[in-house]
Amino acid sequence: MLRINTFGGLWVELDGRRVEGSGPRRNALLALLAVGGARGVSRDRLLLYLWPDATDERARHSLSQTVYSINRQLGEVISARGTEVRLDAAVSSDVGELLAAHQAGDAAAVVRLYQGRFLDGFVLSDAAEFEEWSSGERRRLELIACEAMEGLAAADPAGPEAAALWRRLAAMDPLATRYAIALARATARAGDPGAAIKQLRLHQQFLRAETGAPPPAELTLLLAELAAVPVAAAPGPAPNDRSPADPAIAVEPPASPPSPGPARPNRRRWPLVGVALLLMAGAVAVARYRSGGAKTLTGGAMVVLADVENRTADSTLGPALTVAASIALQQSAGFSVYARARLGESLRRLGRTITDTVLAEPLAQEIALREGGQAVIALSVAPLGDRVMLAGRILEPATGTTLAARRESVDSIGAVLEGLDRLMGWVRRQLGDAQWRSAAPLPLVTTPSLSALRAFSEAGSAFRRGDYEGSRLALERAIADDSGFAMAQVQLGIFHTFSNDVRQGLHWLREAEARKARLTASEQLEVTLSLAMAEGRTADALAASASLATRFPSAPRWHAYGEALRAAGRNPDAIEAFGRAVALDSNFAPSHQSTAIAKRTLGDYRGAIDAYDRTWRSDSSLLLRNFYNQQWGAVFIDVKDYARAESVFRKMLTPAGDQRARGYRSLAYLSLHRGRYLEAIDRLDSAIALYRQASLSLYRDLTLRADAASSRGDLRSANAALDRAVTIFRRLDLEAPFLTLVGRQLIRSDRLGEARVVLDSLRVRAALRPDRLQDQAALAVLSADLALATGRPAEALDLLRGRSLGESFEPAGRVIAIDALLEVGRRDSALALAREVVERIPFGIEGMQDVFRTFGRLARIAEALGDSATARQAYSSLLAHWEDGDRDLPLIVEARRELARLQGAAGR
């Protein structure tokens, strides 16, 4: 049976097993048909969504081919007769079942089926219409799920599931105070008021950081109630109080209410009209607040309301109408309104003074463009003969194009508010039906240049899709447009460090450090964190990331704090921080993945596998990028599930280029781990053939191939691979740790002169970052290896003594120390260290082969000390681990021969 899964990603299962190799457009078609259900989807809609830029003939041909391809692979699951295309009735889907459950009023089934955002992380390039459709469906389905969760929780507030439901809701909409309050009440009701208080305080911090608004009165009162602190009831806002969302408005109440007067406007009384309207708006707001009748915003699209353009003689009318319009817009459940309390922060990022609080139409348009606003609402009021004219326009932020416009004419002063109410009703209806494309917000970073900000945003998009060169060029363009753009300098510094050009990376990060005084508090901490991480100052990075997470909480910041904790070796604390990130965004895949890595480090392999499963459900693409796939498969190596590990690594063979090459490298590591060196060399050759230019990845594969060939005794092939790796070393600016790889292979091949050149280059690179553990460990290991190779074993031991080498270099450092201890005659110490080395075999690092070679070292040392039993055990362990290894591999041949000899001697 075929099943289509759309919540938390997009994947297809056939008879309970995931279908691999389906293209994104095929999966997108299945998602569209799953939502269409029994009624199907018209061909024209499918053509528009999936092939919007193709000619009609070509699009229809593509649809036919796609349907044919799916039916051939999965059985006749799609019917394409007539004008409608639909799925066969036997095909199931989570979205279809959820919609059916919603229609039937089965809230429990809706909650059970909603396992993440609709098509989360799934992108169909060159199909903006599909993206617009999926975005709308995502919002609709999220609303259905929220309603179901809220209904279940409210129906049984003391039930065992209530807290879990409120927790899910709070994670889906972190700005919704009522979810935070409901969660706190449920937590306290379950007997943990302390945890409830912590949740509320975290929500307070989050609100303050994201909106700048003071905490709602209900939240403050609940905090006091939970803490058993008596709090005097605060009076409700007086009708003439200034709205907290509009700090620029300051008016005095009239001494007495205006007299009725004639129907025609009396200009001498206009100043009092604005005041009266503000009083009425405030009274309406208070009444709605107190009655609980205001609708709760859903956290959907955001709109920006510009200050009303006032062309009348009454200076108070514009601010009064702005307040009234804001209140009217805030009653919508379909969108949120930009909070005026955020204006100061927005202006700082624009490089303007905070006192400049007039939100005129051009400024409103730029703020909407920068911060993800989907529309700008521009209003004006003007006298028109004996009447008053109210005008409203809805603008598209990127171009300023008027999407819709309307006028309302009223015949008296007293009717202005009534006219505004009609105008706002029209605006809300238009927003509900608007067809503009949803625009992602520009990054919230400080720069007065909009063109620089756009280039910065473009750089981030390019980096995420793997276009690293495009990312670099966009960042350089951003800095050219604004030479003081510190956050662009930070990202360019990170880019160069990521690309192994440490000197350039540190240059740009230090340029940003010199300019950080002009930045917001959160940006200053991000600059400090980025530089500390690049320089290897672990304690400083930890402090900065802790401040960011606690003062400006968000899922990425809690995740960054977790990574800093993990780098400091504090894995249990790191797991807790990743949990905080997931609490803010349950689908934040990087934190699920990092939780898996931390749990694996702690030996919790089952927990690590579960966390990787959550990662896959949250973002099926994350584990198919960079080195994440190898880390995922490695946990199955730990539990000796080699078939599952190979299945994970083979997922990387679908992408193209370097990503596919990394899949072959992971498979090669698996082969080496099992003693199948010929297979490993073949897989490395497949990887090497995919690279189109010299790169770090090609360099690593060549050094790994040289080691594998050398271990098989094929010195000619090993030296050929090593020659190519040395050429890359001379051409590219590689990070310090990677120089140790080729340096040690040169020593092993007795090419000591070249190894000295590599060591000299390594010293220069390591000096750039004296605080970075990995750089200094790389220098110590290569220096010790060369000292040992040139007859200086005591110096080698001194270089390694008392030094923390980290996971990457610990095996190599210990193996060098074993040989150095033997050279100075300390065989007992060498035996003890060799025992420690073979106890744990790492995976996926170049030192893995050093550990396998240590089994033979251990056996030889033990036999020399008269311990034949340990020698036999060492050879037996190696052969058991490599039971499927190459029979002619020298290490296996030696182990068999020596084990037979020792067993024969023991039997005599």
Characterize this entry briefly:
This protein has 908 residues and is an alpha/beta fold. The longest helix is centred in the N-terminal third of the chain and has 28 residues, at 128-155.
Describe this structure in words.
By secondary structure, the protein is α/β, with parallel strands linked by helices. Helix content is 62%, strand content 7%. The chain is built from 40 helices and 13 strands. Strands 8, 9, 10, 11, 12 and 13 form a six-stranded mixed beta sheet that branches. A four-stranded mixed beta sheet has the order 3-2-1-7. A three-stranded antiparallel beta sheet has the order 4-6-5. Strand 11 and strand 12 form a beta hairpin. Helix 18 runs parallel beside helix 20 (521-535). The longest helix has 28 residues, at 128-155. The protein starts with a strand and ends with a helix. Residues 229-299 and 433-439 have low confidence and may be disordered.
